[in-house]
Amino acid sequence: MLLKLIPAETTIGFMRWRKIGFAFSALLILGSIALVAGRGLNLGIDFLGGTLIEVQTDGPADLSGMRADLNGLGLGEVALQEFGAPDTVLIRIQRQPGEEEAQRAALEVAKAAIDERVVEYRRQEFVGPTIGSELQEAAIYAVLSALAAIMIYIWFRFEWQFGLGAIVALTHDVIATMGLFALLQLEFNLSTVAAVLTIAGYSINDTVVVFDRVRENIRKYKRMPLAELFDGALNQTLSRTVMTSLTTLIALFALVFFGGEVIRGFSIALIWGIVIGTYSSVLVAVPLLLYLRPRRGDEEIAPGEGSGSGPQAAKG
């Protein structure tokens, strides 16, 4: 027996909620922009440059004592935080004046100061200022290039109206994800950029499935009002959308709880992205088509045009 979380005969009127969805999305986007502008992102060592050390101590770490030892070394700003367990500490040391030799010297000085408290050095990373700046630019180019490529793909596969709706939904998802990181002050690093690109791919996959059904219904029900037609397409793909999202979320929650601190930010970003991506496919991308007026051949289909009659017409 096939498992179905959503009954096949579901007839939810998604288009009736489009204005509420647009209002919520507008607040979400404005709030995310305000958070990023106000609080800023907690940029990781990948982007800022400097030195990062992950250490394990014998028992719960004495953060105040370690901080006092490191602050007296004249290395500038030093940040310590518990990292996943009471005996694991993540230490960030600001970039030192000079080339790589200066950073390595600072690393050795810091290790000598805390050596008696540490039983294992788990990770040591150094990122120079030039590399950090290049990584920031590369991350921005990667995200923008992915969005542009997705828009072109949707444009050629469907029509420009679908491409515009998809890129608005994707931009919505990316900005909302940035807002989440600014709100929670999760570390924003190269793994996070990978998560943003993964979110874009997941979101567009969900949107393409719905757009395929919308295009099929436009060709099949030529006189049906678009709002009714879109509701039919969303309901017909709803079971697939819920099942895909649910199974992916199960795996991601396992990563959050058992995957360790290194990939926790990545996993949280993906969980948020799947939720917001599913929402944007249903209440942003498709409802926008009502106002963009997709065409079929040379005939433009107006939002309220047609004489189709409810769900009965949708079932043929």
TrEMBL record:
The chain crosses the membrane at residues 20-38, 138-156, 163-184, 190-214, 242-260, 266-292. It is a multi-pass membrane protein. One of its GO terms (molecular function) is protein-transporting ATPase activity. It holds the Pfam family SecD_SecF_C. It is found in: Cell membrane. The keyword Protein transport applies. Its main location: membrane. Keywords: Cell membrane, Membrane, Protein transport, Translocation, Transmembrane, Transmembrane helix, Transport. InterPro entries: SecD/SecF_arch_bac, SecD/SecF_bac, SecD/SecF_CS, SecD_SecF_C, SecD_SecF_C_bact, SecF_bac. One of its GO terms (cellular component) is plasma membrane. SUPFAM superfamilies: Multidrug efflux transporter AcrB transmembrane domain (SSF82866). Residues 118-293 form the Protein export membrane protein SecD/SecF C-terminal domain. GO terms for biological process: intracellular protein transmembrane transport; protein targeting; protein transport by the Sec complex. The keyword Nucleotidyltransferase does not apply. Part of the Sec protein translocase complex. Interacts with the SecYEG preprotein conducting channel. SecDF uses the proton motive force (PMF) to complete protein translocation after the ATP-dependent function of SecA. In the N-terminal section; belongs to the SecD/SecF family. SecD subfamily. In the C-terminal section; belongs to the SecD/SecF family. SecF subfamily. Forms a complex with SecD. Part of the essential Sec protein translocation apparatus which comprises SecA, SecYEG and auxiliary proteins SecDF-YajC and YidC. This is Protein-export membrane protein SecF. It comes from Marivibrio halodurans. The lineage of its organism: Bacteria, Pseudomonadati, Pseudomonadota, Alphaproteobacteria, Rhodospirillales. The gene is secF.
